[in-house]
């Protein structure tokens, strides 16, 4: 399609026929991550802006879904998984295994993926961080976050997320 390779064009800028043609011609991969882990990463990347994780979470909740940063907005509001048929959904924490499969399917070598960091280390680190950060939140904030990310939690298998309860 002639407009496919334009610079930073959003899908919403195309008409339905163009969207259907483009989506049908690509392999669509969606990378997903536990929403609580995304919040932790956003907080850690912006250290110094908010004095505590709890105040950062309150700012996220006060800002809301529509005015928020893509770093912590619910994934379903960014990627439309109910409207776009993704060929692959890759879960953060299983990147080595899933990317190896994708590269194999694409006929590319998968031997040099993430040699210095294993998925187990990533999962352990985020489990520990989640426990620490979650304990800083009030019961009300925990409930509000679970509600804020309810559609992500319903759409993707984040069964071990602290927000799933």
Question: Could you characterize what this model shows?
Answer:
It is globular, with a radius of gyration of 18 Å. Strands 1-2 form a two-stranded parallel sheet. The mean pLDDT is 82. It is mainly alpha-helical and 165 residues long. Helix 3 crosses helix 7 (139-148). It has helices spanning 16-25, 35-45, 53-63, 75-79, 95-105, 119-135, 139-148, 150-155, and strands spanning 29-32, 88-91. It has one domain (24-155). InterPro entries: Carb_sulfotrans_8-10, Sulfotransferase.
Key attributes of the depicted protein:
mainly alpha, 49% helix, 2 strands, two-stranded parallel sheet, 165 residues
Could you give a short description of this structure?
This protein is mainly alpha-helical and 165 residues long. It is 49% helix and 5% strand. It has a two-stranded parallel sheet with strand order 1-2.
- Strand order, main sheet: write it out: 1-2
Query: Regions with pLDDT < 50 over 5+ consecutive residues?
Result: none
The biggest beta sheet, please?
A: 2 strands, parallel
Q: Would you tell me the structural class of the helices and strands?
A: mainly alpha
Total number of domains: 1
Strand content: under 5%
Overall, the morphology is globular
What is the H/E order? HEHHHEHHHH
User: Termini, distance in Å?
Assistant: 45 Å
Overall radius of gyration:
18 Å
Mean pLDDT: 82
Membrane topology: Single-pass type II membrane protein
Family: Belongs to the sulfotransferase 2 family.
GO molecular function: sulfotransferase activity
EC number: 2.8.2.-
């Amino acid at each position: 399609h002639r407009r496919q390779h334009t610079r930073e064009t959003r899908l919403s800028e195309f008409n339905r026929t163009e969207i259907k043609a483009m989506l049908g011609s690509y392999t669509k991969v969606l990378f997903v991550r536990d929403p609580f882990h995304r919040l932790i990463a956003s907080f850690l990347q912006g250290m110094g802006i908010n004095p505590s994780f709890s105040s950062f979470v309150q700012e996220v909740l006060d800002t809301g879904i529509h005015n928020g940063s893509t770093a912590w907005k619910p994934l379903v509001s960014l990627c439309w998984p109910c409207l776009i048929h993704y060929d692959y959904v890759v879960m953060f924490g299983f990147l080595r295994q899933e990317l190896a499969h994708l590269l194999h399917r694409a006929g590319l070598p998968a031997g040099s993926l993430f040699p210095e960091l294993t998925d187990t280390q990533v999962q352990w680190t985020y489990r520990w961080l989640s426990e620490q950060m979650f304990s800083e939140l009030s019961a009300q904030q925990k409930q509000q976050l679970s509600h804020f990310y309810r559609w992500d939690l319903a759409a993707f298998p984040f069964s071990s997320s602290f927000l799933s309860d």
